[in-house]
Design brief:
Chain lengths: 287, 287
């Protein structure tokens, strides 16, 4: 077919998908093209604006390397990531809610013993985490694998520190027979998402702050349960209602309790104030 | 606002654009987010599919350099480029229609004298182009700047030949007092768009051929007229009805006439068959 105009081109693009071997791919591409074209028609996109978009997407791709995923950051800041998470993990009340994965998880973090300090050599206020992992049916879950990761007090993950060559502030723990895992870390701080790339430019142009409320990332995997990827946010944080990536759930806010200097939960005596976080995760059994 | 779910997140993302200084940017971003989210909801996009999309866009960005623009190729093959062209250049009947620009135009092509050969040292069937540029109101347009560019018989533009360091098969001419420009080249061949990148993978997955019907690209600029970016396609080409980038207009098909060896239009005697193309371009006066 020739002589396509702005009215009939969409049907022709979609028609050409008719021989796609994978019906799911065909469905996704047809919907994507219809919405992409509808967007361009709705705003009557000009060629100059189209080219600005091309340049923006090109910059987003170029910004990506093995330590920086600007495409995910773009998806996060446009709310797409949290939308996809939400529609794939509809939780019954009482089950811990899923939030965005974020771009800073690494595979291969060290497996540490119960109570280990994941913040060795990192400045910050000490924080002792004790968490209970249970099934929605009420039983403790022993032997679950728990990935934790977080940013430092400058708001940077280890991979964002050019001078850091080891993993810091991330580790893997296992729940004990009673369903508990414990660790020492530093109290999370709120921080801006990386703003030195095209997503940062976009947020400035949209007059949006780039901050995420303070949080500890957790990924909990146990046989027979839906993998839980979530955050434990810090109650009272100024950005709980305006998270740059739309990830906050009330059920994912933890009470980080401040203590004066003294004996910490692990029996050591601290000369500085410290925090404790007692938290419960509830996992959804697989059908 | 917290506790966003797949139903209310879109309104919250759009609401956060409310302080955008540029109202046009705000309009575009709001429409983009609404359509992007509607797509993800409509197909109930899974996290795995979302991540495949992230990886695909990342690859598209990585494939771009100063000689390759995979983002434009993606826009072209999804029909977005031609849609944007069409809605920005609604032509009255009789005016030459606008088609996609494509990713292979270069600024700074050599300005050549009337009748010059843009295919010196390039294999192919000789082709003599004589074109008349006129206004929609009937007057010849003298002094118009005419960029022409095309692929060789292997379907490659000069920038795609790693061993070619000079511009070939592209040049800038000027129309004479009677509105004509003339040049020698080789007859264009149909060719596949570059398929060694993610867009090629996409087209294979969609069972689509990557061919464009043979064409000569032309960009004609004259003071007081809408800049014309178009192609002159070759009548009879097998891909006129299935152009991989949706660019064919009936009014943009030229009659490339074959001649037996003999005296060419420029007076030289050729020992091989050659082609002539006589063509008319009609430019739209600016309002």
């Amino acid at each position: 077919m020739r002589n396509l105009n702005e009215h009939n081109i969409t049907d022709e693009v979609v028609r050409r998908f008719e021989n796609t071997a994978n019906p799911r791919l065909q469905e996704i591409m047809a919907s994507l093209v219809r919405h992409l074209h509808a967007f361009a028609r709705e705003v009557n996109l000009t060629e100059e604006e189209w080219f600005q978009g091309i340049q923006f997407v090109t910059r987003v791709g170029h910004m990506c390397d093995d330590k920086r995923q600007e495409c995910i950051l773009l998806s996060d800041t446009l709310g797409l990531s949290q939308l996809v998470v939400a529609q794939n993990h509809k939780r019954p009340s009482g089950v811990t809610e899923q939030t965005v994965f974020g771009p800073f998880h690494l595979n291969g973090a060290p497996h540490l013993a119960p109570g280990a300090d994941i913040a060795e050599g990192v400045q910050g206020e000490p924080c002792f985490v004790s968490a209970y992992v249970q099934s929605a049916t009420g039983q403790p879950i022993a032997g679950a694998t728990v990935d934790v990761w977080q940013a430092d007090t400058d708001g940077l993950y280890d991979v964002q520190h050019p001078e850091w060559h080891d993993m810091k502030l991330r580790a893997v723990f296992e729940t004990d027979q009673q369903g508990y895992f414990r660790l020492r870390t530093i109290k999370p701080c709120n921080y801006p998402i990386p703003t030195d790339g095209p997503v940062g430019d976009m947020m400035r142009a949209l007059d949006q702050h780039p901050y995420r409320p303070a949080h500890l990332h957790c990924m909990i995997q146990a046989e027979g349960y839906d993998r839980l990827i979530t955050h434990v946010f810090v109650e009272g944080d100024a950005y709980l209602d305006s998270d740059a990536v739309f990830g906050v759930r009330s059920s994912c806010i933890g009470n980080y309790v401040r203590h004066e200097p003294g004996v910490a939960p692990d029996g050591t005596r601290l000369e500085v104030p410290f925090y404790t976080l007692d938290y419960e995760f509830v996992l959804q059994p697989l059908p």
